[in-house]
Amino acid sequence: MIVSVAACPQPPLLLPELATGAAADLAPVRAACATAVRELVRAPVEQVLVVGAGDRADSWGPNDHGSFAGYGRDVPVGFGGDGSGRTFGDLSLLVAAWLLADVAVPRLAVTVPAGASTDECLATGRRIAADSGNRPIGLLVMGDAAARRALAEPGAVDAEADGFDAAAEQALAAGDPDALRALDPARAWALSAVGRAPWQVLAGAVAGRRWSARMHYAGTPAEVTYLVATWRPR
């Protein structure tokens, strides 16, 4: 059973080793993510399951590992095992593993393609809920909102991006799976909002239950919108 949820963004600049001169700009995001992870495991959980966007649909175990070498610094990360498993390179898993470095409970992960349909994401979420059974599981859901401003014309007003980001923020702030389910995949793809698919996996995993939510951060530093929230069952 899913007993806690944390939603965090995935900028590699969360790592101070990578941020260098931009470290101060991301400090509020970094602090909010640390708070969200503490909240995630505050209720006793047997396992933390990461949900993130990846190159393909896949499952990842405790011995799998990765590195931020492709982002400028060889910072190794993993899910608490011996590092003998497969190597992952998806940014969602890299950042999640870094955020969970001090978490003592077992960690696993699943990835879904950023372009997966809503139905595919919901089905993945339902499988996660079914597989959890009666075990208390915490979900760490990774993903950013709109990034088009950073890719196209930094600093430009983008009403479509603002509208999408507002809808995503409201859904996470309200603990509303139905509102996450309503996010448009095509619109998210056009805005480079890679969080849409993982958020809809969350919607499938917790559908039919009522949640209390807390928004820890919502902002657009570096022209990308980052949202940090935690959910608890009512």
CATH superfamily: LigB-like
Known CATH architecture:
3-Layer(aba) Sandwich
Give the helices and strands as they follow along the chain: EHHEEEEHEHEHHHHHEE
Q: What distance separates the N and C termini?
A: 14 Å
Low-confidence stretches: none
Neighbour order of strands in the largest sheet:
3-6-2-7-1-9-8
Helix/strand-derived category reads alpha/beta
Radius of gyration: 16 Å
Helix percent band: 25-40%
The percentage of residues in β strands lies in 15-25%
CATH class: Alpha Beta
Tell the overall outline: globular
Number of structural units classed as domains: 1
For the biggest sheet, the summary is:
7 strands, mixed
Q: What's the mean pLDDT score?
A: 94
Number of strands: 9
Structural account:
This protein has 234 residues and is an alpha/beta fold. It has a single domain (2-233), classed as LigB-like (Protocatechuate 4,5-dioxygenase, Chain B). The chain has nine helices and nine strands. The strands form two sheets. Strands 3-6-2-7-1-9-8 form a seven-stranded mixed sheet, with helices on both faces. A hairpin with a 6-residue loop joins strand 8 and strand 9 (226-233). Helix 4 packs across helix 9.
